[in-house]
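Quick question: what would this complex look like in 3D?
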Amino acid sequence: MSEALQSYQQRLAQAFQAETSEFAGEISLIVPAPKILEAARMIHDEFGFDFLAYVTAVDYWPEENPRFHVVYAFRSLSQKLILHLRAPVPGISPSLPSIEPVYRNANWQEREVFDMFGIKFEGHSDPRRILMPADWQGHPQRKDYPLGYEEPQYSFNFDEIKARKPAPKE
Amino acid sequence: MGVEQKLGNMGVVTVKMEELINWSRTNAMWPMLFGLACCAIEMMSAQSANHDMSRFGMELMRASPRQSDLMIVAGRVTRKMAPVLRRLYDQMPDPKWVIAMGDCASCGGVFNNYAVMQGVDEVVPVDVYVAGCPPRPEALMHGIVTLHEKVRGEKLKDWA
Amino acid sequence: MTQIQEVSLDEIRHLVSERALTGDTMLLNMGPQHPSTHGVLRLLLELDGETVVNCIPDIGFLHTGIEKNMESKTYQKAEVMTDRMDYMNTVGNNFTYCLAVEKLVGLDVPARAQAIRVILAELTRIQSHLVWLGTAALDVAAMSVFLYCFREREQILDIMELVSGQRMMTTYIRPGGVWRDVPVEFEAAVRDFIKIIPKRIDEYEAMLTKNPLFLDRCLGIGVISGEEAINWGLTGATLRASGPDYDLRKYAPYSGYEQYDFEVPTHTDGDVYARYLIRIEEMRQSIRIIEQAMAKIPLGPVRSNNYKFVPPPRSEIGTSMEALIHHFKLWTEGFSAPKGSVYAATESPRGELGCFLEGDGGPKPYRVHFRAPSFDNLQVLPRLSKGHFVADLVAIIGSIDIVLGDIDR
C-alpha cells in the first residue's frame, strides 16, 4: 500500500470519523452517509481523484440499520491510485446526498442505484427509473424482492402451468 | 431438360396455385431487422460473406415492419421490450412468420427471472424455434429452410 | 404485461427545452427497433429542423437482471451468465469475473494460463473492433467494409471454437486458470491469422482513412475535451481520443501484461475520426501483443492445483480419496468465499470493465456488480450531439461503440 494512499485515507478518516476495513489488499473507508458530498468534494479538489469508477449498493437485509451500504470507488489517473468508500444507509426511507455536482457520471450510476434498491439521492437532477419500465413497482435487487423465476414444466404439472402461461391472441 | 420441355408449343406452364404462391413466398421472404442481443451478431454473421443468407432470397433486412414478411426474434426479450415487440408484429402485413432464434427467444434461455420473458411465444405466435446459445449461422439457415418447408406445405383453405 | 409507455410531457419537462412545449422544436422517437442504434436503444430527440437540440436516451430494453440472478447460483455456475453481458467481449467478461473471484478467495494462476488468457483477450479485442468497424462504417454507408470485417471475424471465431467448442460464449477462462489446455492446432491457427490480418487492416484503412466522404462525415463531429471526458467517466478509445492515456493494461497490469511491449495510442482531437484512428491502431498493437505472447508462452499446468476451488483431474478420482472428496464438494455445494468485497478491472475493447464482488462465507456470491464501460460512455451522448444533424448523431453513436448488453446487464 503506497504512502500517498495511506495519507489520503488518514486525512479522510480524521475529517469524517471514518472507519477503515481491509480485505484482500484493498482498504475501504466507511464514511457516514450525510457527509458523502463533502467527502467527494475533498477527494476531487484536494486529493486530485478526478475519475469516479462506479456507484453501487449492497443490501444487507434482514439487518435494518444500516440496511444498505452505498459503495463508491474513485481513481486518480495521474497518481495511479484507487480509493474505495462505503456509506451506510438505513432501511426505512433510505436517502443520501448525490455526488453528481462533483462527478458528472454519477448521474446515471445513481439512477441505477435508485431503480434497483430504492435509495433516494438528494439533489440529483433527474431522479427517474433507468433500467426498469417507468411504471414498475418495487426495487428488484433488494434481497426481499423475489427472483421471479418460472417454475419448470415437468410432465406431472404440464397442464396446470400451460393454463397459467400467457399466450398470444393471434 | 428444364422448363422448355414442359412449356410445349404455346409456352404455357400449368401448376397448382397453392404451389405457385407458396414457392414465390419462400423465395423472396424479407426478414425484419429485429436483432436484440448476442443472437443478432450471429444473425449478422449469417448475413455476411461466409454463410450467405441472400441465397435464400433474404438479401436485405428491412428495418420497417410494413415491408417485411419474416420477423427473426434474435435475442432475449425483456418485459420492457414485450409491448414494442407485439406492436411491431401487429404492424407487419399478412402473410407473416416468426422465427424464434436462440434459447432466450424460445424459452427464456439461461435467464429465469423477473426481467426476461420466458419465450417470445408469450406474445407472438412462433413458427420455427431455433435452439442454440447463440445458434451457429448454419443452424439459423437450417431453421430458415425448415420454415420454407412449412410454408411450402400451407394449404389454400388456410388462407383463402 | 406493461403497456407501451406513452411518455407525457410532464415527466420529461425538466429535460427538454421550452421550445418543445410551444411546438417550436419537434420531439421525435428514435425507437428501440432501429437499424442504426446498435441494439435496443431508444432516443428521444428534440429536433429543430434537422439539428439536434437535445437527445434523451432511454435504456433498459435489454435489462436481464444478471446481477440478481447470479446471487442465486454458485460461483462456478454464475460465470456462464457473465458471457452474455457484453456479447462482443465474451472472453473479457469471463476474465474480469475470474480475476475478481481469484482475488476474493486468494487463488493463484499459473503462468501458461496467464499467457493463454492474454492471447484470447487480445483476439477478442480484435474481433470486437472488427465488428465495430463493420457496423460503424455501415452507419456512414460504407457497406463493403462490413462484409470484409465479418470475413476476418470468422477466422477468429474458428480459433475460439477450436479452443473451447463454442464460437462466442466460450466460458473458457475459469477461476484458477483456463478450462483445459489448448489443442495442438491452436498455435498454427493463431500464426496463420496473425500473418494475414495486418494486410487486411491495411485494406480497410485504404478504403476509409483518406476517403473524402468518410472524412466529411467524421471530422469535427462529437468533440469533447480531455478533462471533461474524465469528469464524465469515459474510458476506452472514447477517452483516449481526447488526450488522457488511461488504459488498464498499463495503469494496473494484470495477468502478465507488464511483460509485453506495446503502445497505447492516443489522440488530441476528440472527434469521431480520432476514435476511428485509435481503434485501428489498437488492433495493430493487439497483434503485437499476440506475437510476443505466442513466442514466450511457457509450458506447464493451465489451471491452479488448489483443489479446494479447482476440480481435480478426472484421472485422479479413481485413485485418490481427497480428489474424490474435492470433486464431490465442488459439484454439489461449490467452493465458499470469505466475507469481504473486492473490485477487479480489465480493459475491454470499450473501456474499463470492472467486477465488484462481495462474498458472505457461502458458496454463492452475495453481491455482484459489473462496472460497464458502455454505461458511462453512453451518458455523454446528449452532450456530444448537441447542435449536430441527425445523420451526425448516427455517426457519433457508432463511434462511442456501445453494446446494449453491457449497458443494461
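Answer marked as accepted. The first helix of chain A runs from residue 3 to 16.
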